[in-house]
Every structure is written in structure tokens, then in C-alpha cells.
Amino acid sequence: MGAQQREYKKRIKSAQGMKKIFKAQEMIAATRIAKAHARVLATTPYADAISQAIGAVAMHSTDFAHPFLEQDRAQTGRVAILLITSDRGMAGSYSPNAIREAEELGNSLRDEGKTVDMYIVGRKGDSYYRFRNRPSVKTWTPYKEEELALLGHEIAETLTEVLLSEDPAVHVDELYLVGTRFKSRFQQFARVSRLVPMGIVEAEDGGEKPTFPLYEFTPDAESVMGELIPRYVESRIVNTLMQSIASEHASRQRAMQTATDNAQTQIDKFTRLANTARQAEITQEITEIVGGADALSGSGRTER
Amino acid sequence: MSALEVTFVTSGRTVWSGQAAQVVVPAADGSMGILPQMQPTLAVLGDGQVRIIDADGSVAERTVHGGFVSVDSDRVTIGVDDAELLESDH
């Protein structure tokens, strides 16, 4: 077998190996999307209930204050961004998109003269900032997919603490959340949302603003709010985390599908080239034999 | 008599949803009963049992630690961190 053929065979082998890996990754991602999506759906009723309750309180009672509701919280000019990325690669543009959103947000905040503190979930975001020598304040990595609720709780606790801190070295004014919204298996968007200070009514997706009845508060509006707001922050963080994970799997599935197709194209291409090379070799051999025979018969010798 | 439309959720799942005749929740300042036609209310929950009583008298009970309940035109939403079944229900 010729050197050229051997080279093509080697490439076909390696493309076949990679194709198997991509295919396996794709199938794993496909099964995990369903699970992750179910988890998103499971947290939605709670998130809805809490958003509605918050909206109701905020709309009707203006006679109380909560540090998260104050529109002007500027004390230290420090702003926190919670960025959610993945721990692993092979997920197409999932992590880079989220990082880009965070960078854009960070730049526009820095233009306003604010200092940006990064809080990062996931190894990809962490290494991005570490490589550029801009260490983050806190990172959560690696994280376990089964324990997102716990992780969300921990993150919420950490962030609430710095938001409420009186210490000027610690206090942050605002909190932004950069995650990926899972719209469907085919559509995910990196998205920025401001968590603190809170908008009074958040009309998500540009929907109609809901109207709320005049509530009676037990024991009183202020303690209801004190109870609800930390829960709201936590539920938003948990929900964003879960949507991001679902998006990660969807993104990985798509990337791996493309990679599998690509590997197949490579295999086809190299198979053709290998065939051509083999054919060329055979043709050459025949030509040599025929040429040799012709030369012999031309020489006039009768015995071999 | 109209019935209550109850949704009972924890942060991770829906525990109970459906129609009920009466709901008793452990509000922060004492047990609170909810019947149809109650005025819209938002309450903080303390520790205790949530009891959901069906039209035919069957009772679903869960132990909760903190949370909130909202009542609005016969729609009751109970949101808690975690709900445990009572020992006696097993």
C-alpha cells in the first residue's frame, strides 16, 4: 500500500474515532436537556407565585422601604455581576455568548464610572477572567448539576450579604445577572437582567402588566416584604441557573450534531481520496506491466 | 358554594394543586383559616402544618417551615421552601 493511501486511511480512522465521541456527547446532551427542562418547569410555579406576590405588595404599599427596592443605592460605586457559564467546553457558543454579554455590560458600567465585581459560576468564565488577570471576587466551580437549588441558595446568600453590608469595603450598589434563557431546544439567548435595585413590576417578555387586588397583609406589609424579597432574589437566581444549564445542554447538543455531521463529511471526503489514490496506484502498476511487456516483445526476444 | 383553587408549591416542585373547600395555614402570628370569598391576603408563614381540606372532607397535611401564602379571588397560592409529609400520613 502506498504512502498516500496510508495517510488517508489514518485520517479516516481518526475522523471515525472523533465522530463516535461527538455522537456520544450529543446523545448525552439530548437526554439531559429533557431533565434540565423539567427542572426549569418545576421551579416556574414558585417563581411565578413569588413574583406576583412581590408585584402586589410593591404596587399597593409605598409606605415601607427595603434596601433592595431603593432606586438610588449609590454608596460605593461598586456593582456586582453574576455570570453563569459552563464547566465544560464542547457546547458551541454557549459560554462565549454569556461572557460577551457580561463584558459589554461591564464596559458600559465602567463607562459610567462604576467598579465592577465579578461573581462567576462555571469554569469557562473563571478561566476567561483569570487568563486576563482580572480575578473575580468569588467563583463557584465545579458545580454539580443535581444540586443547583443548593448552589442557588449559597449564591443568593453570598450576594445578599454583600448587598446589605454596611462596610464600605464590601458593600455593592447593584446586582446584575447574566445567564442564558432557555426558550426552546432550538432557541437560547444570553440575557442580562438587573436584580437589585428591583424594578417594581417586571413585565417579562413585554407582556401586559398584571393588575393586582388590594391585599391585606399579615402581619404587616413590611414583614411580608422582608420575607418575600430574599426569597425572590433566590428564586430568580435558581431559575436563571436552571435555565442556563438547560441552555448549555441544548447548545452542546447542537454543536455536537454539527461536529458529527462534519466528521462524516471528512470521512466521505477522505474515503474518496483514498479510493482515487488506490486506483491511481493500480493504474500505474498496470501501466508498468504493460510497458514492461511491450518493451520485451519489442526487443525481438522470444524466450523469457 | 364556590371552591378554592389551591396551588401549593415548593421551590422545586408543585406539592398539591386542585380544588379545596378550606385551607388552614400557620401564619406568622397564628393559625389562619382560608374559606371561599375571603378578602385578598398576603401572609408570611411560620412553622407548622398546612391543612388542605377537600369538599368531601379528606385532608392533605404537610409540615412547613416558613414561606408565604397569597389569597386572591378564591385562588390560593402557598409557596414554601420545603414541605414534609406528616408522620401520620404514611
From TrEMBL, chain B:
<keyword id="KW-0066">ATP synthesis</keyword>
<keyword id="KW-0406">Ion transport</keyword>
<comment type="similarity">
    <text>Belongs to the ATPase epsilon chain family.</text>
</comment>
<dbReference type="InterPro" id="IPR001469">
    <property type="entry name" value="ATP_synth_F1_dsu/esu"/>
</dbReference>
<dbReference type="InterPro" id="IPR036771">
    <property type="entry name" value="ATPsynth_dsu/esu_N"/>
</dbReference>
<dbReference type="Pfam" id="PF02823">
    <property type="entry name" value="ATP-synt_DE_N"/>
</dbReference>
<dbReference type="InterPro" id="IPR020546">
    <property type="entry name" value="ATP_synth_F1_dsu/esu_N"/>
</dbReference>
<keyword id="KW-0139">CF(1)</keyword>
<keyword id="KW-0472">Membrane</keyword>
<protein>
    <submittedName>
        <fullName>F0F1 ATP synthase subunit epsilon</fullName>
    </submittedName>
</protein>
<keyword id="KW-0813">Transport</keyword>
<feature type="domain" description="ATP synthase F1 complex delta/epsilon subunit N-terminal">
    <location>
        <begin position="4"/>
        <end position="83"/>
    </location>
</feature>
